[in-house]
Fold this protein.
Amino acid sequence: MPLLLDSGQQTEDLWVVLPRSDTPADQTIPDGKVLIHLASWEAQRDELKDRASEIGVWLDSDDEPERLATEALSLPVLAVNFPVFSDGRGYSIARLIRERLGYTGDLLAIGDVLVDQLFYMKRCGINQFRLRSDQKTDAAVAALSTFSDSYQSSVEQPLPLFRRRPA
């Protein structure tokens, strides 16, 4: 299935997601564009320096994005795993990655990504979505613009509505 971008366009999904390993230091990282879990990246960071443009990192809902520190800025893609649709910790992780770490690259939602969540994921700074296989792409495109405006501030609109209104 193709990746859905926050603009509603689709693009080819070039990234292979490696599962979380019980032995991150020994996990074999294949050639090509690969997303590896944060623990594997931490354990093999020095060995992977030469492959900087083809290694991305994914975080699970119980990972702390601060572990990436300033090194997050050099990664071509970060991904946030949503293990089940009812686990909202990924939204907080996405906001922390954008707001605290200052990450401006591609931020991908993986896992149990449903059409109903896309608008809110986008507001948290996620700009690419790997939909669950049973989700319809045309419904997903429509879901990205469910609401024309929002009252609250977000990553995509840092000013709340009352600050944006003319005096």
User: Anything to note?
Assistant: The domain at 3-164 is CATH 3.20.20 (TIM Barrel).
